[in-house]
Amino acid sequence: MKIGVLALQGAVAEHIRSIELAGGEGVAIKRVEELAEIGGLIIPGGESTTIGKLMRKYGFIEAIREFAASGKAVFGTCAGLIVLAERLESGEEPHLGLMDMTVARNAFGRQRESFETDLDVKGIETPLRAVFIRAPLITQVGDQVDVLSFYKDEIVTARQGNLLASSYHPELTDDYRLHGLFLDMAREAAGA
Amino acid sequence: METGTSRVKRGMAEMQKGGVIMDVMNAEQAKIAEAAGATAVMALERVPSDIRAAGGVARMADPTIVEEVMKVVSIPVMAKARIGHYVEAKVLESLGVDYIDESEVLTPADDVFHISKSEFTVPFVCGAKDLGEALRRIQEGASMLRTKGEPGTGNIVEAVRHMRLITGQIRKVQNLSKDELYHEAKTLGVPYDLLLGVHETGRLPVVNFAAGGVATPSDAALMMHLGSDGVFVGSGIFKSDSPEKFARAIVEATTHYQDYELIARVSKNLGTPMKGIEISKLDPSQRMQERGI
User: Fold this and answer.
1) Cα dihedral sign for A42, A45, A47, A48?
2) Res B227 pLDDT > 70
3) Residue of B nearest to A9 (CA)
4) From the list B1, B17, B37, which residue is nearest A53 (CB)?
5) Which residues of chain A have pLDDT under 50?
6) CA A13, CA A7: separation in Å to the nearest integer?
7) Model confidence over B33-56: pLDDT tens digits?
8) Which of B8, B74, B76 sits opposite A131 (nearest CB)?
9) What part of B 254-273 touches A (C-beta under 8 Å)?
10) Given this model, what pLDDT does residue A192 score?
């Protein structure tokens, strides 16, 4: 299964490495035409304002909406989660607006408040090491959204059909189980 | 739950990859930088070319400027402390800046020792012009590196020299045998373990950006072509004719550094870039890159 990582800005190489550890093939995506060649897409961590601007500039907003509407799987981590959300607490304009959730940016504070911790995630047997960097939080979700994990009663992993989102960075550790879960989603979508 | 781990500090720099970090001197410039797509801003009292022109001792910015910038943007805010100035760094950490640049652009406070950066929760970026400096800074706790280049000159040649030297040295280290590695560690003046890591992985353990002399979209793309993970632009933006256009163009050229038609398009009608200085015309005592080796 070929998985693309949106390569406008952010931690692209780390996601490609994690996908390959999980048994998939990872490629960097810089142009909308390249979406046709992949079975699933990861929107990586980075700066959501930068990624959002570049997505608009190069036509990725419509192209990824169509990609997701066709049933293909999309996974957003940190900035990628912000980009997927329908609503942002700051009142800023949403980017892709695909997932029925409200997101608060920089919800834990500044970099000195960034942290790592062990996290229980539904569908993954033992706790996952999760790295939160100036991380966002999901403050509210719609009926279609399945909450996969909480950190201190706040939602940090969620799934809505073929869409997956995490507040933290699974790509910064050697634990590729969340990428494995995403690969399963992409394969499931391809089989359907 | 653990804060300030090396993974958290280095990870923050990973999130800046492929991005442009811009020097700003006030809230208004910070907003322009963020709107243009900067991944972070560096809050300063003066950009390097003004520091050069003013002479005298350059110090940490007035905290008012740093706070003003932090208030108006949602992207990370960095600030500079003098080399070896532990207290300036602690002050910046207490303000809540997201990254500290222990920078040769400011006048060094200590001509022997750098700050022991691993003691801090906030991550540090440091300049390096060769592999020895790079690994010494990492040993001290730097979580991100950048070339030194020659700041405030608008001349890319020194940043190119530093990036080429570091990548060339990494290739050489990859090909050394174990016994040669001990000798190389001694020659470079670096810890053996860090050098062994470079030998095994063929890369530095932290992100390495280009800095010091980037003035045009093509300069930024050139540094990406040479293997930079991203770009710092100091005087290049707010010393140009049209900062907003320059900032946007440099962001696009960094993302699409191999798309030459795009770089041609964004380079059109940008107006005059910062004037720039020929390095050989620079008095050796004015070379910032010689500070903190």
Assistant:
1) positive
2) yes
3) B18
4) B37
5) none
6) 9
7) 999 999 999 999 998 889 988 888
8) B8
9) 255-256
10) 54
Closest chain B residue to the Cα of A31, Cα to Cα: B256
Please state, in angstroms and rounded to a whole number, the distance separating the CA atoms of residues A160 and B164.
46
Closest C-alpha among B66, B131, B74, B68 to residue B101:
B66
Asked if residue B103 lies in contact with residue B81, where contact means CB atoms within 8 angstroms, the answer is yes
Q: Please give the structure tokens belonging to residue A125.
A: 């047997």
- Please tell me if residue B228 touches chain A, with a CB cutoff of 8 Å: no
Does the structure show a pLDDT above 70 at B64? Answer: yes
| Burial (CB count within 10 angstroms: exposed 0-12, middle 13-18, buried 19+), residue A102 | middle
End-to-end CA, chain A: 14
User: Which of the residues B8, B98, B206, B265 would you substitute to probe the A interface, choosing the one with the greatest number of A C-beta atoms within 10 Å?
Assistant: B8
pLDDT tens digits, one per residue of A118-139: 999 999 999 999 999 999 999 9
Q: In this complex, do B251 and A90 lie within 8 Å of one another by their Cβ atoms?
A: no
Instruction: Report the share of chain B in percent with pLDDT over 70.
Output: 100
How high is the ipTM of this complex? 0.95
Nearest to B75 among A47, A115, A131 (CB): A47
